Amino acid sequence: MYHLECIKCGAKYPADEVIYTCKKCDGLLDVVYDYSKIHLTREDLKGPLSVWKYKALLPVSGEPVTLKEGGTPIYHMKKIGAEIGLKEAYAKHEGMNPSGSFKDRGMTVGVSKALELGMKSVACASTGNTSASLAVYGARAGIPVIVLLPQGKVALGKVAQALMHGARVISVKGNFDDALRLVRELCIENGIYLLNSINPYRLEGQKTIGFEIVDYFGWEVPDRIILPVGNAGNITAIYKGLNEMKKLGIIDRIPKMTGIQAEGSAPIAKAIKSGAANISVEEHPETVATAIRIGDPVNAVKALNAIRKSGGTAETVTDEEILNAQKMLAVKEGIGVEPASAASVAGLIKLRNMGVIEDDERVVCVVTGHLLKDPETVIKNCDKPIEVEASEEAIEKVLGIKKMKVKAK
Ligand SMILES: Cc1ncc(COP(=O)(O)O)c(C=O)c1O
Ligand SMILES: N[C@@H](CCOP(=O)(O)O)C(=O)O
After folding, report:
1. N6-(pyridoxal phosphate)lysine-modified residues are where (predicted)?
2. How many angstroms does the Cα of residue 358 sit away from the middle of ligand 2?
3. Helix H or strand E encompassing 167
């Protein structure tokens, strides 16, 4: 059994109450389980990775709305690791989820919960991936979906997904933070279920990234998990989940939670660096990594706590560092990710060069979304295809191939 609990004042709410923040103090909510009633061991968790493998720690009782999310690969980044003198550098490729990003873990739980609560429609604001995922899972569930997108700032692949899967797509003349404020009002006033990461049930699904990481390594906890941070739900969800596993005796420690933000959009990294108790809102966030172009992260309080309590850190990376890391992953490791996702690897490189990450650390970078989400940025940053006439000679000429003449007998 579980209930909702305010992280600020401790007020408790029943599991079936549709609320997103505390009615007394407006604090963020967490789903809190009766851990004394959960008997889960490593033995129970044998078998392939997937979100629903960890059902005992998820707040859904019936059959979930699922497209077989989770179970994403972990790749050893041997070449990038060798370049920075780190043997144990890994990337967990969340772009391999059904809609191409980690949001599917949250939406399988969030949309299942919407149905369980009897909600008739769902909505979100989005820099792209949340809307794509909600559109997909809404279609699967047969429930209407409304998405609010910041005009002109959403990557093409993501808009295409939201449109194709049948969401009502509204383009807002403002940034993501404006769209989130508007969708929160819209949902509360009209009884629409809000499925941004302020919804504590959605975040429960995302904690399974952490479960899968420790499960993959035979319950050996890596020293550090590095994530790109935008609205800051993912880093907090993974931290919460790993704490639950520790409470249940399945793991014995928590990795250093490390958040990476783009320089032009870095309220959390700035607060960590300055030691400020809370963030200062970035009024005009800007970065090529549109997925993390967020100035007022809704989960900031939870994220600062996760980073500080785990002994982790936060860092900023430039757009140039992000695009370089995206290309390194693609060319040297064969891993195709969108720009925001590459921020975690750009952060890995920067923190290693700064001496923050030690030689013997095992580090897992979560790469959050697929390369094909943002084809426009890719095309801008790669050489153009070479145009040739339709002849073998022309192709050989541009490839610099000289044919050996075969002598006739
Ligand atoms: C691809 C991608 N990476 C990272 C993030 C940041 O995740 P979070 O908002 O949970 O910090 C997002 C969305 O916010 C995203 O779409
Ligand atoms: N990158 C996100 C931004 C919204 O974050 P959420 O986790 O609160 O839904 C997106 O893909 O829209």
Report:
1. 103
2. 32
3. none
How far apart, in Å, are the Cα atoms of 192 and each of 6, 87, 121, 134, 222? 22, 48, 5, 13, 39
Q: Could you tell me which of 169, 268, 189, 198 has the C-alpha nearest to residue 228?
A: 268
Q: Which two tokens stand for residue 343?
A: 């921020």
Please name the residue that has the structure tokens 């007020």: 11
Spatial separation of the C-alpha atoms in residues 85 and 201, rounded to whole Å = 40
Complex-level ipTM: 0.99
pTM, 2 dp:
0.97
Nearest CA to ligand 2 atom 1: 291
H or E segment and range at residue 88 = strand 88-93
Query: In one letter, which amino acid is 157?
Result: G
Closest Cα to atom 4, ligand 1: which residue?
A: 228
Question: What tens digit of pLDDT does each residue of 317-343 get?
Answer: 999 999 999 999 999 999 999 999 999
**Residue 313 annotated as binding site:** no
Return the half-sphere exposure (C-beta side, CA atoms, 13 A cut-off) of residue 195: 39
Residue 372, CB-side half-sphere exposure with 13 Å CA sphere: 9
